[in-house]
Amino acid sequence: AFARAQAQAISADQALSEAYRRSNSGRFAEAAEFFAASASTLSGNGAIEAKLNEGLLQSNLGNYNEAQKLFNSVRNQTSASPVLSRMLRNYEALNALNRQNGAEALRIVD
Fold it and tell me: CA-CA to 87 of 20 to 30 Å: which in 4, 35, 50, 108?
């Protein structure tokens, strides 16, 4: 809750940068809060990117169903961007690997 309050106290762009910083340092739960705050205030591709990253972090934390819900919530919006559609594909494959399902991960990226 403290991380979300911190994220809401700064601009969306700053929150997105902070989310990546915390994610890169392995602070996944805090980073997920920053990505969630960014996704709720950004628009367009920035919001989609933030939601995809939030989903990956939820998967890293073992919240696989929540991760898939987040991926599904932006699936239709990613098709307009080759970068976002590849992020979705790769993050869903990582979600499968986090669930110890290598066969599904290979199917996703194939």
Answer: 4
1: confidence class by pLDDT, cuts 50, 70, 90:
low
pLDDT tens, residue by residue, 16-53: 888 899 999 999 888 988 888 888 888 999 999 999 99
Query: 58: which 2 tokens?
Result: 């939820």
Tokens, residue 52:
């995809």
> What burial class does residue 44 get, using C-beta atoms within 10 Å of its C-beta: 0-12 exposed, 13-18 middle, 19+ buried?
exposed
Instruction: Provide Rg for the chain, Cα atoms.
Output: 13
Closest CA to 74 of 106, 42, 30: 42
Q: Which of 59, 57, 16 is nearest to 39 (CA)?
A: 16
**Count of positions (residues) in the chain:** 110
pTM: 0.87
Coil vs helix vs strand at 76: helix
Distance of CA 57 to the CA centre of its chain: 6
